[in-house]
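Title: Prediction job returns without error message
Component: structure pipeline
Severity: low
Priority: P3
Assignee: unassigned

Description:
Job completed but the reporter wants confirmation the result is attached to the right record. Sequence as submitted:
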Amino acid sequence: MTSQNFHTPMFSPVITSKNEENVELPTSPSNEAAADKAVKGEQSSGKADLFNWMKGSSSSIFSMVAEKAKNSVDAVLTTLDPQMKDTLNPNTFDNTDVVVASEKEIVVSAVREGFQKVFGKGVVRGLEAPDQPFAAQLVGFSAASKATKYCIDSVRLHVVKGPVVAFERFIVEPIESKWYEFGLLKLNDMERNIDLEVYTQSVPVPATIVGLISDDTPKDYEYISTGFSIPVAHFMASNLKVHPSEWQEVMTGVSQRSSLLAASVSLAMSYKIALE
C-alpha cells in the first residue's frame, strides 16, 4: 500500500483575542509631548474665549449701569439746581464766541438765550456793524439777505474765527395788497463753511401803512432799490399808541423778543446739526 503524505492545515483566526485588542502601539516621547501640547492649547483657547466673552459682557453691563447712574445723578442735580444743567450739558462751546452784528440788547439777549438753550454754556456778545448802504425799511427777501450778509462781512474785519450772526427786519408782499413783516437771522461760520438762514414768524402789516411809507419816501432816495426811507415800526407805533418795539405783540399776541428767541433757538439747533 502506498503511503500518502497529508499537510497539517494551518488556520488564521479572524477574530483576535481580547488581549490582542488592548495592545497599544509604542509611541515616542516627542509624539506624546506634541499631543499633550495640542490638548492644552485647545483648553487654553477655550478658556481665553470664555474669558473674553465674560469680559465683554461685564464691560457692557458696567457701561449700562454707569450710564444709568450718571443720568440719575444728573436728574437729581438739575432738579435741585436748574443752573447745573448748563454745566452738565456736553454740547457746549466754551472756547467759541458767537458774535452778533448788533449791540441792541433785544437782539443780543435773544440770540444768547437761544444758543444757550441748545448748547448749554456759550459766550454770545454784540458788536455793532457800521452803517450799511441799504434802506431804513427793507423790502423783499433778497434785500434782507444782502443786508445781513453785509453786516457779517463788516464784522469779519474784526472777528476772523467763530460764528457771526446778523439780524434784519423786512416787509414783503407775497400776495397783492397783503403785506407782512419778517425777521431774518443769518449765521456764518467761515472756518467750517456753514451758512444758515432762519426767519421769524410773520406779522401782518396793513396795506394802507405801506402806502403811507411809500408815499413819504423821496423818489430820489439813495437806497430806494432796497426799500423805503421810513421804518414800518414808526407808523405802526404811532397808530397803535405803543413803543416801536411793541407793535408786533399788539398785532399778533407774540412779542418781538419771543418771536426772535424762537428763531434763535431754531438757528442754534440748525447750527448744532451742521456741526455734527
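Comment from assignee: result matches the submitted record. The mean pLDDT is 80.
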